[in-house]
Every structure is written in structure tokens, then in C-alpha cells.
Amino acid sequence: MAQTKHRIFNDYRDLFWSLIPLVLIAVVLAGAASQCSVATSGPTQGQIPRFDVTTALKADARSLPFAIRNPSLPEGWVSNSGSREVVGGGQAVTTVGYLTPQTTYLRFSQTGATEEVLGRHVLGSRYANGSVDIDGHKWNVYSEPGSEAAWITDFNGTRVLITGAGNDAAFRTLAKAVGAAQPLPKS
User: Fold this and answer.
1) Are residues 83 and 165 in the same domain?
2) Domain count within the chain
3) What is the pTM of this model?
4) Which residues span the membrane (predicted)?
5) Which domain covers residue 93, as residue numbers?
6) pLDDT digits (tens, 9 = 90+) for 22-51
7) How far apart are CA 8 and CA 97, in angstroms?
């Protein structure tokens, strides 16, 4: 009869040797199910989704009570997302996201809500700690170490917020384009 050890004499080596067959079985099953792969190069960029910003903002202009602007951005900016949500007081916010030519993400939101309501909804408890002038228009700057910067301004009753991972030049480009855009017609 084979001699077996009593349970108190088992140690980590016994545990290690008993886990090896289980790990090998898991690897074989995962490979057979095509759930594992071995990468020979670094990560690759996936396909960037496209968002029809013109159609979306025209629809928003027809249905929302505040003026909507569709900025004309330079070559290389790609609109890749859009959404609409409601903030405090039942005010709608329409948001469009862009990838800059440097592949950083910026988004801009438009709403009839006050700067305080919009800022609290998007930025939490941050406060404006500066301002920047873009073509004679004052943008309040919300910046905090470790957080994305945000700029907010008012265009005749419509608050516009820009936020994201872009650098100062990208923020300025988007702010300048928003400021130069005329409100879309309501019809």
C-alpha cells in the first residue's frame, strides 16, 4: 500500500506541484477557445468612430431652447462622439467630442444652464482659478493638478464648456472656432 503524508506534513511545494496541471489545463482550454494571444508588437490603434456632428447639432438647434454653434475646425480634427443629457434644473446639455491631430480628446458642451450648474455637473467642486482671452472673449479657466483643464464662457445666454486632455493650443483652437461660429438656425 502506498504511503501518504498526513495533511499537516503538506507544504507549499506540494501545493505548487498540484497547481501546475491545473494551470496547464486552463492555458490549453483558453487557447482552444481563442481567448489568449501572444502579442509580438505593441498596441495598435483601433478604428476611430465617426460622429456626424453637423446633423446632430442641427437637430439640437431645432429642439433646444438655447443657441447651438457648430465650430469649423482645422484639418485633422475628428468628431468621434456626441451626447445629450440633463443637468440641475432640467436644463439640457449637448456635448460633442473630438480627437485633435495630436490624438488627444477634447469635448465641448453647450447648455442654457448657468455656469455654476454646468461646472458643478461636469467639474464637481472645482472653481475657476483664472481666465483666458480668445479673440476678445473671456473664458473662465478651471485647472487643478491631476485633473483635466476646463474652460467655460457665455455666448448670449448659452454656456459653452471645453474640457479634455488637449494641450493649451488645442483648447485655444477649439475656443476660437466656437467663438467664430454663428448660432445655427432653429428651422
Assistant:
1) yes
2) 2
3) 0.74
4) 15-33
5) 53-180
6) 888 888 887 777 655 666 665 666 777 888
7) 62
